[in-house]
Amino acid sequence: MSKPPLLIIAAGGTGGHMFPAQALTETMLRKGWRVKLSTDARGARYTGGFPHVVEIEEISSATFARGGVGAKLMVPFRILGGIISATVKMMREKPAMVIGFGGYPSIPAVAAAWILRRPRILHEQNGVLGRVNRLFAKRVDAVACGTWPTDLPAGVEGSFTGNPVRAALLARAGAAYIPPGDYPMSMLVMGGSQGARILSDVVPEAIVQLPEHLRRYLRIYHQAREEDRNRVEVYYASRGLTAVVKPFFNDVPTLMSEAQLVVSRAGASSVADIAIIGRPSILVPYAAATGDHQTANARALVDADAAILIPESQLDATSLSAHIEAILTNPDAASKMAQAALTCGRPDATERLVKMVEKYGDRETGT
Questions:
Q1: Assessment of whether the complete model's pTM goes beyond 0.70
Q2: pLDDT tens-digit profile of 275-297?
Q3: Distance CA 145, CA 274 (A)
Q4: What distance in Å separates the CA atoms of residue 171 and residue 175, rounded to the nearest whole number?
């Protein structure tokens, strides 16, 4: 009796890669596929929300972005070791499809699929291809794009699927927006999977500069790096502000659906979440992002008048405070921003990606 087809998902160690991977996993399991996740130790931190039946394999990979000279010299050898190991396992497993979501940890599985000519596709979350996806873009059967338009290499055509979001967030899609007013309000501050020090430096001061009648109604949920957490908590508390500060929020769908305003980096997953739920936002793209892809990610929301974009180089407490005040003191404008955000969402992104997996996958490989 044949086994259900196997899907190998290869994803790097950030939420931007892992959250869309989780969304695809949830749907493919419901469709009767087996799913194996190939990632590294960093990525494994984000697997708590994955269904327990998913096999999690931590592979040998590395990045040139961290470590000293010695560590960087070892990167090619660690990646090569990961590719060899993945190839040997893939010869035995014969997956029906391998899909890479980007990041250095996705290299071994995608490279092994190319070597063995297994069906393979890529999903790029951002408006500019990451280094790893750019490397493989001409060596796969198809490229799915989460942001449109996406800057693709010459000769490569992409399919606009949108960015899949997790089931818990999709359940909040289009949640009713309560406009700001003279009653308790909340603001969600998200700095991406690494936290954003600049938001921890600027946002608290910007909130302190708000008029007292706004501050007294405001509750802040602020994502900060672990090393910044204490000072941010102390700053809020010393100014009489109500704030919950954590390195990571497990209940983002709930927090975002209850927020009157989101202040965030413009990572692809964050932008997709904001558009699916439909919330006014102030976006501060990460200046060092490859190809300035976070600015590209934010473009749809900004063009739809659903978000305000502030370049990192122009971010300061006074201007940010003015933008926050303008939104929280204008309920009609805030509601229009929330509605406009919904027009940018692709709640069917997961199904679109599933169709690509089924189209290019080989479902006859299970034995």
A1: yes
A2: 999 999 999 999 888 888 999 99
A3: 18
A4: 9
